[in-house]
Design goal:
- This protein is an alpha+beta fold.
- It has 2 domains: about 140 residues, no CATH class; about 140 residues, GAF domain (Beta-Lactamase), CATH 3.30.450.
- It contains 8 helices and 4 strands.
- A hairpin with a 5-residue loop joins strand 3 and strand 4.
């Protein structure tokens, strides 16, 4: 069981490491860092623009301020990118239009230049953010596909239900990077449980899990009738009568839009693995009974 789990953890780590190296669009920095970075980049762009303006006359000098907008949009998201757009327009007005070092504008052409700079900043912010979002989604799907592939392989190699439950809980936690729990239920009793992360079950959580099993439908945290449950639950029913419940603890502000597809894949593989293990156990029990009977007859 330990070897199987270690293989799954290795598969989980590989795509994450690859994303850190090649996925520049996945820089998940704190919000304040993004805004501070947008401020710093705008300051650098301002210094560069003022230096160039003193040396030569360039008609489209305002485009220098578009660079921080692009970098902030790709690296930190829409908010810091919009912040760069606003700061860039203000810096261009304050340092590079007459009268200098004032937000007043004498030339109507400069007003249009500032407005155009701000408009370009808004458009570029949206495009950069959309590109970052698509890259994030693509990397997430790639990582989830790798985790599901490793899970299918490892759960097939497991030789008892406890290993199956443990591997499944690890795969669920890796898919969404949140705490996860898997409960195997036989005759309304929990016979095996696997947890990853802060997935301690309270009474409201257990009630929501039981309700999900009884109704054969998912139960979402904080939604009636499971208002006090922290878990989203999905029931799993097998052909041979074993039941399981899959639970995930999502941050309400970061809950994925459609987690059901990946969870359904895990549920299907888990059901097949449990049926397969049940068949193995029954066959082993029959073989043991026949062997015992043969020994009894021989003696």
């Amino acid at each position: 069981m330990t070897n199987v789990e270690s293989k799954l953890l290795q598969d989980i780590a590989r795509p994450q490491d690859a994303d850190l190296i090649s996925g520049w669009a996945l820089w998940d920095a704190p919000v304040v860092v993004g805004y501070l970075a947008s401020l710093a980049m705008t300051v650098l762009a301002t210094v560069a623009a003022v230096g160039v303006d003193r040396a030569v006359t360039i008609p489209n000098l305002s485009l220098i301020f578009v660079v921080p907008v692009i970098v902030a949009g790709v690296g930190f998201g829409l908010g810091p990118s919009l912040c760069s757009a606003v700061l860039g327009a203000l810096a261009f007005n304050f340092f590079l239009t007459e009268p200098r070092y004032s937000l007043a504008v004498n030339d109507p052409a400069d007003i249009w230049a500032i407005a155009l700079l701000f408009l370009v900043g808004l458009i570029v912010s949206g495009i950069a953010f959309a590109a970052r979002h698509r890259a994030t989604d693509a990397a997430l799907l790639k990582r989830q596909a790798t985790v599901l592939q490793g899970y299918s392989r490892d759960v097939t190699a497991a030789n008892d239900v406890n290993a199956i439950v443990s591997i499944t809980s690890q795969a669920l936690a890796a898919l969404f990077e949140v705490p996860a729990v898997v409960m195997l239920v036989v005759d309304s009793k929990v016979v095996s449980i696997g947890r990853v992360g802060a997935a301690d079950l309270r009474d409201p959580d257990l009630e929501a899990a039981q309700s999900s099993l009884a109704a054969r439908s998912g139960a979402r945290a904080g939604i009636y009738p499971d208002l006090s449950s922290r878990f989203d639950f999905w029931p799993v029913a097998t052909a041979l009568g074993q039941n399981a419940v899959l639970g995930l603890v999502f941050d309400p502000d970061e809950r994925p839009a459609a987690p059901d597809k990946a969870v359904d894949v895990v549920a299907s593989v888990l059901a097949l693995a449990l049926d397969r293990q049940h068949f193995r156990d029954d066959r082993a029990a029959d073989a043991h009974a026949h062997a015992t009977e043969a020994i009894t007859k021989a003696t």
